[in-house]
Amino acid sequence: MPADPLRGAAAIVGLGITPQGKVFHTGALGFAVDAVKLALDDAGLAREDIDGLLLNPGLAWADLGMGSFQLQQAMGLRNLRLSATMNLGGATACAMIQHASQAIAAGLATTVVCVFSDMPLKPPAPKGDRASAASAYGFARGWEQAYGFFGVNAMYALVARRHMHRYGTSQDHLGAVAVGQRRWATLNPAAQLRDQPLTLDDYHRSRWIVEPFHLFDCCLVSNGGLAVIVTGAERARNLRRPPVYLWGMGQGHLGGDPADTLTSGAVLAREPAFRMAEITLRDVDVVELYDCYTFTVIVTLEDYGFCAKGEGGPFAAEQVTGPGGRVAVNTGGGQLASFYMWGMTPVSEAVIQLRGDGGARQVPRHDVALVSGNGGILSTHSTLILSRLPS
Amino acid sequence: MSAVPKPLPQITPEMAPFWEAARRHELMVQRCRGCGTRRFPARELCSRCLSRDAGWERVSGHGQVFSFAIMHQVYHPAFADAVPYAIVVVELEEGARVLSNLVDCPTADVAIGLPVEVVFEDVAPEVTLPKFRPRRAAA
Fold it and tell me: What is the pLDDT of residues B21-79, one digit of tens each?
């Protein structure tokens, strides 16, 4: 079978990460601009080189119409041949990179910047005038509030509880994911929780948010921006940093009720991605999985086949995913412990690892990375397989 | 008693029959006239057969807990005195799944499969919330 023409056709050549977390010096648009500038510097490219712009606006500017055009104007970008504002929730980051590489392979654009930014946290307000940061993430609809049903935490908790019921997933299993990722975070100078090691006892003692989720089952909330630049493989070889080639990609959106399927779209997305990449799971050195919750990591490990369906909890509890384990998962601490840029966090950590820039957390063998994105309540899913090798 | 009142449900035209029934202390769900599927909350279309033709049907109010979550975090000041409380998805005997609260039950005793029955909480002159409690043995 001939190789897929998309395999290795494009590469990530620039990575821009603004300060993350409780940072308030600009707004969502400003973080987006800063992230693009950092990515251009990283790649050694100029603004004029960009002819494609894909944007995933975070909650702070999700309502703004034509966001990618707003960002184009704010940055003075001219003569774009590709522009779109996309929203598949946490699956958008990998999906943007997919569309960028497809447009490049088709000859419709040469250099596409993919951007996420958000500002869910407000600066500390005077006493008595504090709006809850969590309210920014309250997706509660009109009638459910009357029952005290607020936010994504509760929606995910209902699905996690079904998984626990059906497969025996336990609180210790969830905690093992939190502990493993925190161990990685302590090795990552850019992680928001780098100075806060976590034991399983600490995990159990942390306050409940929505049971079965403790505080440390839930991802961080971060202000900031993150951008990556995608260009054709030929051009990629002549730029400042080592290219990260796109070997495989796929999407999967199951529909229906996640409380019934207890499954992410990885079960659909993995097959085309691994077929295109011409590898198997055993060839993957670095695994960066979308982690809005510890629970999501357990489900995603199952759905990519790292273990059998339902055994993600015991798999995580074997502590094989932390530093020194046999499967390097969420090596920067993930969104649970480093910073939360929707799916851009796992993408960026894969780029860092494949370039060999991981410092104390660098995975020794780092040829191939698997990256997942997940949006809604296991509603949308996207997969990237990346490599530092051209083919 | 919290100083801030709990939010009342926004009663949309689509969901109005549900809330009118609740005021009469009846539980009703929507039923597709195309394929007979019962559904909650109300929707314009049946996602199974795509029919727009639907009516409302009274149901027993009996079912079991399909899933649950215990709310600890206070997202709204009116619930500050209520935490921890149970959100439940109840699978009704007739098939639809309804999101509500479980009352008259310690949060530690909430479990998937627990048999429950509907109760009605009159929260305002015009508004009644259907909730659920562990099912009592038939008299």
Answer: 999 999 999 999 999 999 999 999 999 999 999 999 999 999 999 999 999 999 999 99
Interface contact A208-B73, CB threshold 8 A: yes
Instruction: Give the SS3 label for residue B92.
Output: strand
CA dist A178 → A10, A213, A291, A297, A299 (Å): 34, 11, 10, 10, 14
Residue B104, Ramachandran bin (φ over 0: left; ψ between -120 and 50: alpha; else beta):
left
**Chain A with chain B: Cβ pairs closer than 8 A:** 90
Which tokens sit at B3?
């100083």
Are B71 and A259 within 8 A, CB to CB?
no
With an 8 Å Cβ cutoff, are A145 and B9 in contact? yes
Tell me, yes or no, if A137 comes closer than 8 A to chain B by beta carbon. no
Give pLDDT tens digits for B76-97.
999 999 999 999 999 999 999 9
Q: Find, in chain A, the residue whose alpha carbon is nearest to that of B7.
A: A146
pTM score, whole prediction: 0.95
CB A244 within 8 A of CB A351: yes
Residue B68 touches partner A, C-beta closer than 8 Å: yes
What chain A holds in terms of domains, given with CATH numbers, is: 10-121+221-387 (3.40.47.10)
